[in-house]
Automatic annotation (TrEMBL):
EC number: 1.2.4.1
Required cofactor names: thiamine diphosphate
Secretion signal, residue range per the UniProt entry: none
Name assigned to this protein: Pyruvate dehydrogenase E1 component subunit alpha
Domain of life: Eukaryota
Task of the protein: The pyruvate dehydrogenase complex catalyzes the overall conversion of pyruvate to acetyl-CoA and CO(2).
Length: 421
């Protein structure tokens, strides 16, 4: 047992043990939760259909007020956002349609991956649609966002197209990164990826926020990371710098309860991620409710642009599939847990139930939206398939910012030279 003589050796030994052996030393609840919030009774309630509305007008664009559930938010060293949000019938239908499209797109990617038309890494956000759609609804168009690798819905919401995402997954010319980036590297003018190194995008987000303050843009930056990246040293370094300089940065922990195959409770001594900024205030959000996400995002943008410095925002959500398409997602959690979340807290079904309850439209109208979403995604897939693979000369493009290239660049061998001018 020489490996146990050092702390590092002991940790390696522990993490190599089968769960069955470790479970004999710790209660089963430490590994499998019968309800997603069992580890933390103080967390927000991640239900999708708990808001209420009265006096819904007849006009499609007339505003009315929705009262969010009292447990939609928790706060640390700050006030929670208002529980009232103004919306309209058109806005609710837009949110519904966007979430349905994002799910259809991710479901298509799942099938295309299994058909081997998509290769490499592919991380899907099925179950987490309210995060991307709700954040986009709460952000200003000029606000900036950077995230990790579960980035397909953010790419579309921030100005990309479904076709450009699918084509990028295929490695085709019509891809949003010209077929050279793949699943984890997608960008738009206000969306900075799609980043594959765990936690590395967080200090880049702080840098983006520094740029906004330096240029005086009055734009907020949302730097996202997962619960699995929350213990990275660079995350806390970014917190420190952002607070030192009071940068307009919202650090967003997208907590879907599992970092790869490890539950948050196994990896973090404090799973209240919104409280981990020390002197930086934070809010926790029920991110299975798209209206709560929209309200919290708008609140966060306004908070940091008012000169208050950075804010932590934890979105409590849940992914139905595995960490990536190479992960079945059922070896570290029970099928009953997944089914329970699908049946009780699905963000799309939750909003659908409220749309019907409030008399926004009838079920036939929602089925039409569902059909149109499927047709739009199916068409995007077919168009992406027709796109050719990028030409070999594209290997030399997009290495440097346009206009800053050197005179020449060496290739794979000493005699392989490409001249930019």
């Amino acid at each position: 047992m020489a490996a146990l003589r050092s702390p590092v050796g002991a940790l390696r030994f522990a993490f190599r043990q089968p769960v069955s052996r470790l479970a004999s030393q710790r209660p089963a609840s430490a590994f499998y939760s019968t309800t997603v919030d069992s580890s933390n009774a103080e967390s927000v309630h991640i239900t999708a259909a708990s808001s209420s509305a009265t006096g819904v007008p007849s006009g499609d664009s007339e505003p009315f007020t929705v009262q969010l559930d009292a447990n939609s938010f928790k706060a640390y060293k700050t006030d929670i956002p208002s529980l009232e949000i103004e919306t309209s019938k058109n806005q609710l239908l837009h949110l519904y349609a966007e979430m349905v499209k994002m799910r259809r797109m991710e479901m298509a990617a799942d099938q295309l991956y299994k058909q081997k038309l998509i290769r490499g890494f592919c991380h899907l956000a099925i179950g987490q649609e309210a995060v991307a759609v709700g954040m986009e609804a709460g952000m200003k168009p000029s606000d900036k966002l950077i995230t990790a690798y579960r980035c397909h819905p953010f790419t579309v919401q921030r100005g990309g197209t479904i076709k450009s995402v699918i084509a990028e997954l295929f490695g085709r010319e019509a891809g949003i990164s010209k077929g050279k980036g793949g699943s984890m590297h997608m960008f738009t003018p206000t969306f900075f990826g799609g980043n594959g190194i765990v936690g590395a995008q967080v200090p880049v987000g702080a840098g983006l926020a520094f740029a906004q303050k330096y240029l005086g843009t009055q734009d907020a930056v949302f730097a996202m990371y997962g619960d699995g990246a929350s213990n990275q040293g660079q995350v806390f370094e970014a917190f420190n710098m952002a607070k030192l300089w009071d940068l307009p940065c919202v650090f967003v922990c997208e907590n879907n309860k599992y970092g790869m195959g490890t539950s948050a409770e196994r990896s973090s001594m404090n799973t209240q991620y919104y409280t981990r900024g020390d002197v930086i205030p934070g809010i926790q959000v029920n991110a299975m409710d798209v209206l709560a996400v929209q309200k919290a995002t708008k609140h966060a943008s306004e908070f940091t642009l008012a000169g208050n410095g950075p804010l932590l925002m934890e979105h409590v959500t849940y992914r139905y599939g595995g960490h990536s398409l190479s992960d079945p997602g059922t070896t570290y959690r029970t099928r009953d847990e997944i089914q329970s979340m699908r049946s009780s807290s699905d963000p799309i079904q939750g909003l659908k139930s409220k749309i019907l309850e409030w008399g926004v439209v009838d079920e036939a109208s929602l089925k039409k939206i569902d059909k149109e979403a499927k047709e739009e995604v199916d068409q995007a897939v077919e168009e992406a398939k027709q796109s050719p693979e990028p030409d070999a000369k594209e290997l030399w493009t997009d290495i440097y910012y346009k206009g800053t290239e050197p005179d020449w660049m060496r290739g794979r061998t000493l005699d392989e030279i490409h001249r930019f001018r």
